[in-house]
């Protein structure tokens, strides 16, 4: 009995020391979701006030893309888009709930989806990395052109004039300190038919684009966040072409600035890849989607890394994030039991598991 009490005391003291360690920062508990449509703004704000803030979600990535009434390039707006006044309501609510608001615009990749070209390449087709790849009438994967999503050409001399104008505008209206640039699933890069990129090293092209965006933000005291898949090796690791790279971009992990925050997503298995990013000196957030057991496993893993790492590595493990890839209103309805959409229900279950974990572990 005395021996048992002794070990319990040692355990308690060790956790007290952990809690008092100056290298420990409060864990990020994040949600990544599409910015609401104007018609769903009231519903989303209520969700922030009733569910996000009270349940410990302290970081909210809103995928804005073209869902904003841009003034710099009005032609890039969606037909229906959030106004400045509506965004300010989101900002005010986030502040009241202690939530850091981080806007996202997909840069480099994800410039199309299925059979639809997104607004940047629709309005500025000269930015297309692969103009010879035509959009299909009916999209299927795989296909002869290896078309998943289009990319813009990172070496086009005018593309960043447009892109950075959008970034600056969205950062100002959201009063944000960090920007998420996407940068995931980039399959078209350094294309052999691109007059500027042909023959270029793909890892260097990717790293240079990350660095250019990072430097633009840093000049305004702002931080860059990206998804991490293009920085991981996919063949030898078994991670594959989606969660990692098989087209040569992975060496970029050693070329990008060390202050870029990596959102490391794995949806089927709790891969221990945050340790790879942390060992490279990069801060990392682990991200999950629609499997509650995987979500819990990933949260336990990142907490284990935080507890068991040395003082140099420990601050690199920032926390965890739920990602939502269905319609925002549909997800909220599923969360409240008002939708029977299978995909949204699975994501809602994962998010509930995250909230339960926060309640029982973040004390």
Automatic annotation (TrEMBL):
InterPro entries from the UniProt entry: GH, Glyco_hydro_20_cat, HEXDC-like
Residues making up the signal peptide according to the UniProt record: 1-19
Domain Glycoside hydrolase family 20 catalytic: 81-287
Gene3D superfamilies documented for this protein: Glycosidases
Coiled coil location: none
Keywords noted in UniProt: Hydrolase, Signal
Superkingdom as given in the UniProt entry: Bacteria
Pfam families associated with the record: Glyco_hydro_20
Membership in a protein family: Belongs to the glycosyl hydrolase 20 family.
Name used for this protein in its record: Family 20 glycosylhydrolase
Organism: Reichenbachiella agarivorans
Organism taxonomic ancestry: Bacteria, Pseudomonadati, Bacteroidota, Cytophagia, Cytophagales
């Amino acid at each position: 009995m005395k021996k048992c009490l002794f070990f319990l005391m040692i355990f308690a003291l060790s956790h007290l020391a952990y809690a008092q360690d100056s290298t420990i920062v409060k864990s990020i508990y994040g949600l990544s979701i599409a910015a609401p449509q104007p018609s769903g703004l009231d519903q989303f704000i209520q969700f922030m006030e009733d569910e996000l803030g009270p349940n410990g979600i302290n970081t909210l990535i809103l995928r804005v893309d073209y869902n904003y009434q841009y003034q710099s390039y009005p032609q890039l707006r969606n037909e229906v888009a959030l106004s400045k006044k509506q965004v300010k309501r989101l900002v005010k609510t986030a502040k009241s709930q202690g939530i850091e608001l981080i806007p996202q615009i997909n840069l480099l990749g994800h410039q199309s989806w299925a059979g639809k070209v997104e607004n940047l390449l629709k309005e500025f087709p000269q930015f297309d990395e692969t103009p010879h790849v035509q959009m299909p009438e009916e999209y299927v994967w795989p296909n002869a052109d290896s078309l998943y999503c289009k990319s813009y050409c990172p070496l086009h001399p005018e593309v960043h004039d447009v892109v950075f104008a959008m970034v600056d505008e969205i950062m100002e209206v959201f009063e944000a300190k960090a920007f998420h640039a996407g940068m995931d699933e980039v399959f078209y890069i350094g294309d052999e038919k691109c007059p500027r990129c042909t023959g270029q090293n793909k890892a260097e092209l990717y790293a240079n684009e990350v660095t250019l965006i990072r430097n633009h933000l840093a000049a305004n005291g702002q931080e860059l966040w990206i998804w991490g898949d293009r920085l991981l090796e996919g063949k030898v690791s078994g991670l594959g072409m989606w969660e990692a790279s098989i087209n040569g971009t992975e060496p970029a992990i050693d070329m990008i600035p060390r202050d870029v925050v990596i959102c490391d997503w794995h949806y089927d298995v709790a891969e221990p890849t945050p340790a790879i990013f942390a060992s490279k000196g990069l801060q990392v957030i682990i991200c999950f989607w629609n499997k509650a057991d995987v979500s819990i496993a990933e949260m336990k893993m990142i907490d284990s890394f935080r507890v068991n790492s040395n003082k140099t590595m420990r601050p690199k493990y920032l926390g965890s994030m739920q990602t939502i890839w269905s319609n925002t209103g549909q997800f909220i309805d599923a969360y409240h039991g008002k939708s029977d959409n299978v995909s949204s229900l699975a994501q809602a279950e994962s998010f509930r598991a995250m909230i339960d974990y926060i309640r029982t572990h973040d004390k």
